[in-house]
Amino acid sequence: MLVIVAPGQGAQVPGFLSPWLELSGVPEQFAAWSEVTGLDLVRYGTEADADEIRDTAVAQPLLVSAGLAAASAILGTLTTPSPALPADRALVDAVAGHSVGEFTAAAVAGVLSPHDALALVAERGRGMADAAARTETGMTAVLGGVREEVLQAVADAGLTPANDNGSGQIVAAGTTERLAAFAENPPARARLRPLSVAGAFHTEHMAPAVERVRAAAAPLSPQDPTVRLLSNADGAVVERGSEYLDRLVSQISSPVRWDSCTQTLADLGVTALIELTPAGTLTGLAKRALRGIELLAVKTPDDIDRATALIKEHAGVSAPAGADQEG
To answer: Which of 65, 98, 202, 254 is catalytic?
Structure first.
């Protein structure tokens, strides 16, 4: 059983798009997507420095476009299977994205067209950037410690556990003043790592962006997903496209429960996981939370053949009875 996952903001690094633009048809894809988003995605993905692509309004469309390019290269188009892959069974058994990666997942699962996913995520990026500019906020990863004690310390500091990633990683978010006080009195046996993001995403501070994106989403006609599609809200498999779109909007100011998504994948019996570019973050979490499954971080087109092989081996195939899954 195979799942494709898409990373969230912070996974981008300067120049990561360059090797993908060497594939036939990809430059033309990005020219069209740049028109949709109002951004020069090629320049941002090849020439821009870390500060430029840290900008929320840039990072989010850039990440989704890169993920869609990788998915298209692996699966064929998002509607027509590649001739290199089996036609008699599912190419993908489940799809999930982390935070903004949910927009990539929505397009891979057929809920939104690539055009609509990119247009909406561009509005999301602008809305969240504007919301972040209203108050000085940020995010800090809390690594290790006892889960209950970490969550209590985050609450006591007046912060929000904006990302619960499992595997001993919780991200606290809120005002920079409260984050500074939290750093002076961290939870026992935990390490803190400030994140290079522009604001307190997935908290009440993003409320202004919710209404903005909801208005932009209103004219869209989402389709029901063609594969199992997991939600960050609670790890549930969402069967209706309209519900998933509603969740995409509300998730802007709600915590990401990647730990719940991981548990759902374990319960489903996933045997292989492919992370779309710019990959590494989610496969790293899966190494600790989904032990024993095959993992692939798709970083460049050199990884396409391996991805195709994993799909042929695992997609549409149930996990063996009694298989050991942890999550």
So the answer is: 202
